[in-house]
Amino acid sequence: MNNHLLEIHATGLRHALADHDQQSVREHRDWLTGAVAAALLDQDVKAMQALRAALVELIPLADKYISSGAGERWRALGEVLQSCADTYKPLEQRRLAEPSRLSGLILRRIAKESGITPSVLAARLNKKRSHISNELNALEKEGLIYRLSEGRNIYLYISGTGRGVLASFLPVRSLDDTGTEKYLPREYPHVDPERLRHASPDLSGLVYPVA
Amino acid sequence: MNDEPSPVKRTCRFIAFYSYKGGVGRTLALVNTARALMLRGKHVVVMDLDLGAPGLHHFPVFWPKGGKAQCPRLKGFVEYLDTCHHQGPPESLESFIHPCRGKPQDKGRAWIMPAGLHGEAHYLEILNDMSWERFYREEDGFRIIENLRGHIMAEFQPDYVLMDAQPGLSETGVIATHQLADVVVLIFNLNQQNLEGAKRIHDSLCHLPSPPLILLVASPIPIVPVEQGTPFSKKMDWIREHLAKAENAQMPLLIPYQATLAFEDRILIDDHGDPFLSDQAYRRLVTAIQKTVLVDADIFLDRAACCWREGRLAEAEQILAQGLRHNPDHPQLLNRLACLRLASDLIQREGLASAMEDLQRALQLTPGDYDLE
Q1: What pTM was computed for the model?
Q2: What is the ipTM of this complex?
Q3: Does A125 touch chain B (CB under 8 A)?
Q4: Number of Cβ pairs closer than 8 Å across A and B?
């Protein structure tokens, strides 16, 4: 987005509002509305932040000079911009990363097995390769994964954006001060305390006692 | 005053069916055991913990009630763990444990906890992602499994929970045999690799702080000479020496080889039309399980009756009282105990011969024939 143009229209709108120049108000307002729509559609975080800053100055003026509730509408628009700019996770990316979707499962598998080939990925998920190719294209288009070719082989990797989006789907785990994941405590109402008393104190030893 | 009867707490036993190697008839043994128990009026939950190759869903008798006449796909153990992982233990198990259609002649009820929606991408994804070591060390795995155990008992009040454990040295196999089971039915063939594997699990179980009881089952065994010095006899000697902590190490149960079962999954307990197939081996297994776990009223009634007939009334009374601790609402146990106590008084007043005559008559009665009031 052109910041110079934004400055011109924001200043122009300020003056037009103070001068009650309805024609100029409409022109500058339409340009700014179009810029907001473009920033949202392009997921342009910097443009969103710039427009949000401009709106913060314009909202009190709208409240003062326009009686039709324009200030309220611009305030709402500013909040939308703020929230989209803050999450850094555009909606399409989040949609693709949903755990219940095949694309979400693919993304998680690639995150687990960096460099996995599409054939192995398809086998892991019990799908045909043709079935997952569209999903891979969509993930790559959104910047969640990338492919590296070596000869005829293709290897799949998760991108930094992909990891960021996946991190937002961790409802159970939380990050402690050191940045490591920890498991939140839960209630287990049906556990028999008597059995716990007799259990092996080394619980992890239960899993591999025969090894 | 609260007139509502307090909920009856029946003792439930968890039985794991385990084999070190596949193909020895583990699942068939479980299915036949479940069917026999249902026919005997027991409430049974069957759990398919063979997550890699689940098989219980192949038996229509365990399909859910009112479902379509085809193999259903239902949520089960894997989805339960996933739910616990993301949301904590669920309030109800109805999404993961389903009532079975059974057969009209069944006196008991059954429920199934399938392995899960196996074959679907999400099922494989959960299994691929699962780190059992982390599950136990960091994610309350032990408590989650213990909670499932308690939840099954609270929600379904079964008499038995039968678990089809994953073969080999697998984590889910160990969960069934080393954590959940009160009894492990250890099934093996008589070749050396089966026996070595059985010994490995046997030794491992014996090192647990509270080891489960172990029942040995050799399966499937062809009809061979069994005299001293034969290969069969030598194998039995090996078992007596190396699997000595098992309840029946002196004489393991045998399930004979039946060629028909190599081609199709047939539940012999339900198969009354074929005169060449016998379900006796499975019936012996069920009786052995009942005698080993020692919670069923039938077993206490039989033992008490033996003592009673031989005039050992005090011992009979003890056995009946022990049975009532596990089955507080059982009418036959209550009636027999009441009869016995009345008879003890009678003996003191009328003399032993007259009392014994009355007792013999009482033994022939069924619970409906007389009224305690």
Answers
A1: 0.68
A2: 0.80
A3: yes
A4: 107
